[in-house]
Amino acid sequence: MGVNSLLGGNSGVFKSQTATSPMSNRQFRFMVMVSGVLVFGALLTALNVYELHKLTQQHWTKMHDPGEADAEGRGANHYAKPIAWIKGKRMESGYLKHVVNVFMRLGYEVTHNENENWDVLWAHNYPFNELKSTMQKLKPYQRVNHFPGSGYISNKVSLAVSGLPYIPRAFRMPAEKDALLKFSKVNPNMMFVQKSNNHRGIKIEKLDDLDLGTEGSFVQEFVHNPLLIDGYKFDIGVYTIITSIQPLRVYVFMGDVLFRFCPEKYHPFDPEIRDKYVVGDDYLPTWKVPSLTPFYTKFGSGMKSSFDAWLKSQGKSGCQHCVWDSVGDAIRTVFYAKESLFIQSGKSYPKTHNFFEMYRFDFVIDDQLRVHLMEANMSPNLSSQHFKENRLLYEQVVFNYLSLVGVGTAVHTGTVEPQSKDEEDMVVSVTDIAVFPNHCLKNCNASSACEQTQCQLCIPCLSSDTLVDLKLAYREHLARRACKRVVPQAINPDHAHTPSNMDSITPENTLMTEWFRGKCLTDSSFCN
User: pTM of the prediction?
Assistant: First the structure.
């Protein structure tokens, strides 16, 4: 009975549970469904975390594994830093330290050894002999800091005897010995110096004491009346950048100019004391010239602005513009004179868009504020080991230089190669380079009109090469920072509606000059 009672009791309990089971089953099924959803969500979250982790690992792997390519076939350079190959002798001496610093600040990986994936080559020496095969197989995006034929400007003998304006009269030895002797008889009080390409051992000598039979040298008129500041003679170095040869585009860095003073006062003059008239490695810097010291050290002026302020203090407030305008004209004259030689040298290479170059043009100013071009230096000194204060000048020069030529870009990728046409158009598009819209609509609508010179800048008439040149010119203009264009020449906004006389320049230079005039009409910043 106890058992029955127990069974009966359990049975009662069972019946009671069974009676409420429909509600319990629905609750159970709901709980199971909710639990399933939660479990699925957790699994999905875990999968997403795993995939994100995997992608992150792949990204970093690509950055460090140059052999691996992504799903679109792009290798490590799509993710890694662009590569600057800086090539020179005795790199351990640090003479290119400031170049390295600027490249690294711009996000480059710097190497001193050849790497097939390099983006920019900065070669201290002329690279077209040692690396000729590499230079002839450049990828479209690779850039090199020299132009073929750049020695036609930096060769001291060739430039001195060119007979160009602003260059003191010079005679090539021994070929022009008789002309020199005749010239000296007409100018008996003139002093001369003999120079060669190594530019060492310069000294004023009597003509009878010069070796007029020395091959590879020249004898040049000495500028006997230099402008003096506190009694010191000086020269100025203007950093000059060429970005294109056909058409020609040349800029000068006007953020500052290198001033170097002779360590001894010019008067009383003695040709036996070279430190009175020759600027050497141990020159007197701007900050040690008494009249310039307060401008430079106290009021934050650079070398150029200190000089301009000194001129103003001497009652010559408008004269600095004459000096710098003459400097620009002298540089422009040299490049126009040597342009055809650059073009001929460039024919050995598929494209010249890969190349750019910086020179330092050295001038002397006389006491009438006339400028005299002495030489142009390829791969100018950029080391501040001798004068630590020059660090700022050199790094600003390099930064502005790389910015101008598009190597120091604001669009950061793992290479200087554009990643897409959309990226290119974002930076500069056809709408940015369009000029003379009214003229084009009225006179250049027919397809046959493109044969007319005045229609060749209209968008439907642009050749592919001209389109590339104009886009590069536009980008240079936006990126020029403290650089000033000297070729094409500045345009007077008041005269921009009328084409200037361009009979003496090439058709390519004519088109580029006209394009700047067209842009000048709508944006005055393009005028100069």
Answer: 0.83
